[in-house]
Amino acid sequence: MVDASFHLAIADASHNVALIHVMRGLFDLLLGNICRSLERLYTRESSYTVIHAQHQAILQGVLERNPNAARQAAHVHLTFVETTLRDIDEEATRQGLSRRRLQSLSNLEANASP
Questions:
Q1: What is the spatial distance between Cα 26 and Cα 20, in angstroms, rounded to a whole number?
Q2: pTM, to two decimals
Q3: How far, in Å, CA of 18 to CA of 81, rounded?
Q4: Residues with pLDDT less than 70, the chain
Q5: How many whole angstroms separate alpha carbon 17 and alpha carbon 21?
Q6: What is the pLDDT of residue 81?
Q7: Radius of gyration of the chain from Cα atoms?
Q8: What is the pLDDT of residues 8-24, one digit of tens each?
């Protein structure tokens, strides 16, 4: 919930009426999506520290009224999240394929035994 609230606060700080409207309108969906993503991201030990530091960099840019720094920090954050989630998904796919292969081999061995 804190992470989703942070994202909403950043939208509010942008003073971009369209962004604020969209973010508030989609808050429940955003909250659920962020919670699911965080559950997946935090399966990697270093992710919490990295994400926290990225949020701090975004907040610092906003507090310093430096939109370029805030934008760059947000870009780094979004790229990290996207890349990490993709890596986690690819790893899960590889593990699932390996389990299926092992199961197939086990089934073949069981059927070949007299």
A1: 10
A2: 0.71
A3: 24
A4: 1-2, 113-114
A5: 6
A6: 93
A7: 20
A8: 888 888 889 998 888 88
Give domain limits for the chain: 2-112
| Residues with Cβ within 8 Å of residue 73, at least 6 apart in sequence | 54, 57, 58, 60, 61
102 exposure class (CB count in 10 Å sphere: 0-12, 13-18, 19+): exposed
Number of Cα atoms under 13 Å in the Cβ half of residue 101: 6
**pLDDT for res 36:** 85
- The owner of tokens 């009426």 is 17
pLDDT at 25: 84
Residue 14, C-beta contacts closer than 8 angstroms, at least 6 positions apart? 20
Neighbours of 34 (CB within 10 A): 19
Give CA–CA dist 79/81, Å, rounded.
Answer: 6
